[in-house]
Amino acid sequence: MDLGPCPKTHSDRILKQFQEYQQANPHDPRVLAYKQEHEATLYGIIEECDRRIRASQRKLEKTPEENRKTVDLVRVVVLRWPEFTPHLRISCLSLDSLRVRCARRTR
After folding, report:
1. Burial classification of residue 20, based on how many CB atoms lie within 10 Å of its CB (0-12 exposed, 13-18 middle, 19 or more buried)
2. Does some domain include residue 88?
3. Beta-carbon neighbour count of residue 10 at 10 Å?
4. For 64-84, how does the pLDDT look when each residue is reduced to its tens digit (9 = 90+)?
5. Is 41 helix (H, G, I), strand (E, B) or coil?
6. How many whole angstroms separate alpha carbon 43 and alpha carbon 37?
7. Distance from C-alpha of 98 to C-alpha of 44, rounded to nearest angstrom
8. 67 with 45, same domain?
9. Could you tell me how far CA 79 lies from the centroid of its own chain?
10. Helix, strand, or coil here: 47?
11. pTM (2 decimals)?
12. Coil/strand/helix, residue 81
């Protein structure tokens, strides 16, 4: 699953400096705040993965007819509101592949 590029700065030099500081000052509030921020970021990524999994599972529960209607609706939205096209084009491709998989299962 691609979440895009990380907005954080990843520098080996900064990491080394942080690790040295952390060893020297393990109870510094800034170190604890960094750890909490890191943990919150990880929980956010996990929550996003879980959300995408739940959405995919809901799609699999739909009938092929419901999937066809969803794909058709997304296509109508893409044609009427082109500013959403980059985001919805991905959805259309995903829904098309889902419809093909569901059709294979019903045969």
Report:
1. exposed
2. yes
3. 7
4. 888 788 888 877 776 776 665
5. helix
6. 10
7. 26
8. no
9. 25
10. helix
11. 0.49
12. coil
